Amino acid sequence: MTLLEADAGSNISSTSTSVESMAADADTEPQITLRSAQLTPSGVVEVTLSFPGESADVVEPSTMNEWEAYSTRQHKMTGQTAPPVPVMNICLAPIGTWNNGVKQFVAIGIKLKGQGHRVRVAANERFRTEIVARGLEFYPLAGAPESIQDFAKFVYDSQNAAQAAAPGRLGTGAIQAFKELMYSLWPAAYGSDPHGGGTNIPGKHFRADALLWHPLLLGHVHVAERLGIPLQCASLEPLSPTYSFPHPLSSVTGLDPPMMKLCRSNLLTYGIVDTAIWHGSVAEVLTQFRAFIGLQKRCDLPDPLVRWEVPHIYLWNPALLPKPLDWGAELSVVGHVTLGINAGLSRRKRKKREKENKRFKWPNALTEFAFQTSAPPVIYFGVSTRTMSPGILDELLRKVDAASDQRVLIIFHTREVGDKQRALYQSANVLEIASDLPYARLFQEPTVAGVIHSGEPNIIAESLSVGKPIGVCGTHSSQQFMASVCERAQVGLPLIDWRTCTVEPLASSFGALLTADLRQRAQTLAASFNPTQALDAAVAAFHANLPLEAMRCDVDASQVARVFDSRHDLKLSLQAYASIQPRYDESKGFVPYRPLRFGGGHPPTFSIRGNAAEVTCDVKPTREHRDGVQLALGALGKDEGASSSSSPTGSRASIAMFWSSAGEEAAVRKATNVAYDRIVKKTQRESKRQAVMRFFGVRSGILSVVSTLAPRSSSMLEKCAGW
User: Fold this and answer.
1) Beta-ladder partners of 87
2) Helices 477-488 and 148-164: angle between axes, nearest 10 degrees
């Protein structure tokens, strides 16, 4: 049975496959059994687990002690001085709306560009104008998931479309849209913007040296493997396995909804969700995508980000949700990143934006309703109406109106633009406002005492950063997750489910949101928000995660290596290669250079073996994450396999011109050739010395010391950096 035939509608049948403890005495440990897992039309993976006893879900203290010790060692290692970062081409790729995903990546991109890097942001076409206005390059991605739940719904629709297609065909419609999104990822990292030079005029060619993409853009690992470059991910929601909380897209039947406690079932949800999203038509599309970009073998790993230990940068305030103890140094929680109104804009556009900002005024009806008096208090109530019918929305408004009962004023705000023929709701206690009014600006108004909204991470951060307590109104598991985060931090309420709420619970929620204790804790938490510091930390984490010793040119450490001189084992930048190439026959030993080699279920390694800077990573304590994958794969009757073979070697290098004048070219060529000759002669001298030492029987230990003098060492790189 093929993956496509194996229930492409994401219904994982009941299985007795057991989750075995990774502890030493696995045979005596109780077992958790997966009964079912199903990706639903709403984008939730509903999971049913069977627990033989309470102890089956317990994380032993010894396990967390191991992780604490590991975390301490990692912290000491990451505290070392970072080497200089060469100028490189960086591709960023978010998913989400402008406020909830895209602008955070743009802020990081502007910071990276300010450090000299060439930065491209790949996103939906509707964001082109704003991104380009901020001084960054752009590439249009097909499709536009506006959140992680939208992406999961997108996958559900794709799998259903594939299931309905004729045998042997993936079908059209949703699955074609998913395929187009995946296939647009390759030219985003390696290609020209089709409109970069104007309408239908391609821009300058772009080849990424590093990727910073959202974890759910599933083609990321395959693009990185094909180019042999480092991949990192960034997200506003936690998507890496942990004992501390469940996957935001999961809903485990029969367990306490908040689930903000250490338990083994939390960890299992990550492997199960990864597999439920990946299997069937998605795996088939990714396999086709791999073949399209020149990679061999099938896509057989549901969780390559975990297997390859891909670094993640998480963009939320750790004071709200601390970094889990069982996350390694490759997973960072840097803080809430936001984008300044004028960040990256030219002087002319900055002045124009400042004038627009000064001229901004709230509608008169809103000012008269909410901002002219401090009593009664005002609550902002925002909802997402994508899954609401007009009748349900009107019914919710009537309930909100009745619950306010002249004790509070409600500013009601929908995220999406609704039916233009529908009149906005207005009463003595409730005023519905237009969807395009800026919510972050509303939160800053002194009369707004509390905020209820749809639970998007950026809205939570914007409200808490100005000291406004939180309520989340929604039905999705990710909304339940964010409500639980705020409730555990004692700055928010339990989830308000608009499907089942009545007037009395709504009135109680309004009252609880306005209590002095909750408001005081929200104001205290507000002091921990520092977007500037968070942005600096995000960029620092990105740099710290780069395998710089594998990326830098051996002749000029300020440049990225893109050509390999196999005769002398030297990594060269295109500038260095262009300088020395006329002296040599190109067919003799010069090939494109890829810093990393990918393959199988282990993290990528340096493509040049024996690099002294490639140290062995500290061994992580064991966890049962892969058991979640095995449970789901077992339910589908699918064995695990290797995702790929070794990365391809590629074609011959091409020469690019880098000099503005003949004089500059001559000077750079001369200096580069001097540095290159010095390194080559040094290598030849060392090789002769080693041969003599071997002839006289000098032991290998001394030889290993001598080998550290090779030009790939950091000391030699430092000597070359001055040229």
Assistant:
1) 559
2) 160
Distance from C-alpha of 237 to C-alpha of 273, rounded to nearest angstrom:
15
**What would the two tokens of residue 247 be?**
């996957």
DSSP reduced 3-state for 124? strand
Are the C-beta atoms of residues 301 and 50 closer than 8 Å to each other? Answer: no
Query: In the structure encoding, which two tokens stand for residue 145, read together?
Result: 């998931």
Q: Where are the domains of the chain?
A: 347-528, 548-594+659-720
**In whole angstroms, what is the distance from residue 530 CA to residue 316 CA?**
11
Nearest CA to 607 among 301, 228, 238?
228
Residue 416 in tokens: 């999406």
With residue 61 as reference, give the H or E element that holds it: helix 61-78
Q: What is the pTM of this model?
A: 0.85
* Cβ neighbours, 10 Å, residue 163: 17
Reported as a pLDDT band with limits 50, 70 and 90, residue 234 is very high
Domain 347-528 is classified in which CATH homologous superfamily? Glycogen Phosphorylase B; (3.40.50.2000)
CB 591 within 8 A of CB 650: yes
With b for 16 or more beta-carbon neighbours within 10 A and e for fewer, the 15-43 pattern comes to bebbbebbeeeeeebbbbbbeebbbeeeb
Spatial separation of the C-alpha atoms in residues 35 and 635, rounded to whole Å? 9
For 407-423, b/e burial (b = at least 16 CB within 10 A) is ebbbbbbbbeebeeeee
CA gap 94, 215 in Å, rounded: 9
With a CB cutoff of 8 Å and minimum separation 6, the contacts of 350 are: 342
The first and second tokens of residue 317, run together, are 């305030």
Q: What is the pLDDT of residue 391?
A: 87
Contact assessment for residue 248 and residue 477, using Cβ atoms and an 8 Å cutoff: yes
Token pair recorded at residue 308: 């390859």
> Which string of b and e fits 576-615 if b means at least 16 CB within 10 Å?
bbbbbbeeeeeeeebebbbbbbbbebeebebbbeebeeee
**C-alpha to C-alpha distance for 329 and 322, rounded to whole angstroms:** 14
The one-letter code for the residue type at 212 is: L
Largest alpha-carbon pair distance within the chain? 98
What CA–CA distance (Å, rounded) separates 230 from 552?
Answer: 13
- Supply the pLDDT for residue 21: 37
Secondary element (H or E) of residue 440: helix 439-443
Long-range contacts of 1-6 (CB under 8 A, 24+ apart): 1/637, 3/279, 3/280, 3/283, 3/284, 3/636, 3/638, 4/162, 4/170, 4/280, 4/281, 4/284, 6/279, 6/280, 6/636, 6/637, 6/638
Number of residues that this document lists for the chain: 723
Strand partners, 381: 412, 452
Structure token pair of residue 264:
């083994």
DSSP state of 552: B
β-strand partners of 123: 140
511 C-beta neighbours (distance < 10 Å), count = 12
150: tokens are: 């939208």
Q: How far apart are CA 651 and CA 630, in angstroms?
A: 38
What residue has token string 């589908």? 636
What digits encode the pLDDT tens for the residues 631-671? Answer: 878 766 654 444 444 444 444 444 444 555 667 667 766 77
Phi, psi of 542 (to 5 degrees): -60, -45
**φ and ψ at residue 25, rounded to 5 degrees:** -100, 70
Share of the chain above pLDDT 70, in %: 79
CA–CA separation, 231 and 217 (whole Å): 12
Measure the CA–CA gap between 595 and 523, rounded to whole angstroms. 47
